[in-house]
Amino acid sequence: MRSLLSIFIMILVVGNLQAQLNDYKYIIVPKKFDDFREENQHMTSTLVKYLFTQKGFNTVYDDAMPDDLNRNRCLGLLVKLDDNSSMFTTKTALVLLDCNGQEVFVTQEGRSKKKDYKASYNEAITKAFASFGTLAYSYSGKGETEEPVTISFKDDVKELKGKDTVQKPKLNKYQDPMVQQEATPEKQSYKDMKPVESEYGKAEEKAKDLTEQVATPEEQRYTTKEPMPSDMVKAEDMEGSKEKGPLTGQGLLYAQEIPNGYQLVDSSPKVVLKIFNTSVTDVYTAQSDNRTGVVYKKEGKWFYEYYVGEDLTVQELNIKF
Question: Which intervals carry biased composition (Basic and acidic residues) (predicted)?
């Protein structure tokens, strides 16, 4: 009985989705999804366009839209790739947005644990696309029968036939006599003649505030004299160092080259972490006295991932190579 009910619910969902999507003439695929730095990174745009085309949709890239879609953006649905991937699992879902940015449909989340990014995103996106099931798309033509909304400002500004037709407004009882303002097509001005509070007696207070200001991390980076990283700390000095917890408050870490990787040194100087090369660019295995993990670069920033018990911890690092 439950299986029959599940099948019935799935048929209703697919039928409702098909009725919704049939109202749209195009599926628009971005050449570069928001979560990626490059166009068609990991072949994601190519794959998404291919899958929608196989389902019978008229699929176009966002930089090659036809004339009718350019005139009426509401003829198409924009595909958004919702990427919730972690270091070891690729997790994606596909979101369809209308011309007002409203969600029309969101697929299930597809997952993959493959190590190769291209293969992993291919598997995850394909699993997410399975949400469209046995849907048979057929454009209803509804979008073309609805006229796009246009806004005209033709009658909003009346023609002024002469300067004599413009009169300066008289001051009424609700207007502030200490403010002079003029708003005409020829001149617009605003002048506040209210007395300004004197700064006398506040100089000492302001000076105190200025002396208590603390430089930002960016300012400290340029004013602090950086120690020379070369030969300052030897690799064997790592032996016997004891970490007391996460690398919180370490500030800028200097990468000193060692066999097969680098050692990260703080300004003490002290070696706080060793990282070792892997076959993947900007991904290193990491090792300290009391934990192991992974250091990787994402969106221009460095992160350190490691487990504390069964909990995965992620910490941002400031590394200078």
Answer: 184-211
